[in-house]
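User:
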Amino acid sequence: MLTLTSCVPESTKPRSGPFDPYNQTLINGNTGFIDVIDQQALPSQPFQAQQRVNGKVALLLPLTGQHATIGQSILEAAQLALFDINDASFDIIPIDTQGNAAGAIRAVQQAANHNVNLIIGPLLANSVEAAGRTASRYGLQVIGFTTDWNKVSAQNTFTMGILPFDQGTRLAQYASQVGKRNIVIIDPQTNYSKAVIHALNQSQQLNIIRTITLSSSQNIADDMTSLPQNIDAIIMPFGNPQASQVARMLIDKGLGPQNVTWLGTGLWDDHGISSNPIFSGALYAAPSPTLRRNFENQYQAAYGRTPERLASLGYDAVALSAVMLKQSQGRIGNQSILNPNGFAGIDGIFRFQQNGLVERGLSIHRINGVNQTSIIAPAPQSFVN
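Assistant: Predicted structure:
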């Protein structure tokens, strides 16, 4: 059984692949079972071998085409989960979507012909949207991996993708808890940054004294010159290469992380940032790496290579489906997926919401030096207040 553990200072590894799970764009550059979180106590009850799963799920992935490397890594992680579950009554059926919506529609039709209980995937936004619409005709639920929340609109469609809303909420919580209330935001005006800022604006405890539009180096330099003196923190919801460029300008203005708190998102969980000494002292919100590292070690031992960053979601999705099949006697509907207590997985606790999006418990990480981070505020271990 996968249980939640306390978080301690650890060094981090760089992201393993060219696909950014937080932004879903191309960039350069001993696990156990998932289980339902018991509302009264953690850890939850173990996955009992004698309790049969009795079901099968389809795993829709881009196994050919541009994103085939990512799809193959997710499939291999799913096979690890299947091995760990070790139940002959449970199976996964991989189906290639070819990385496009038309392929996703065909894959759903194939899955329905196999009489599956659930569809996991697809990976990309348009494919998830198309799969959800098609699956609804067969009464099937879809749990995809997209981070494009605009594509999760059907009542039968959910996503496990790591979303920006939780990161904004976690940053607001942390800033308020440590008394960092006078906030400046640097905004590149992307959909991602807008989502983070929307979550920040929901907090009634932060005083956002200025939002600076990241349109050019000159405008950042000019705006920084006129900032008030009582800044507690600067929030930067963007990654490299912009993050390193802005960081240098901030230091030149005397606004380095030793003088004012820098707060970033999971986009800073990146070798290009953690290896840059000017980020020493900066903070960011992201899942805890503790359990993911155990998974990565198991994957490395099995396949001889490092998994893609999204592979852990594939492991969790398959293990989650086994749990839900056990609990629902093979009938997975919205009630099974919308468990308010949530689930514990490789990337921490999570639960699905009525709008189809996932809510995650995140940690606050501190960059201590080159490729060294520690967790200064652990992720919650329960959604129960």
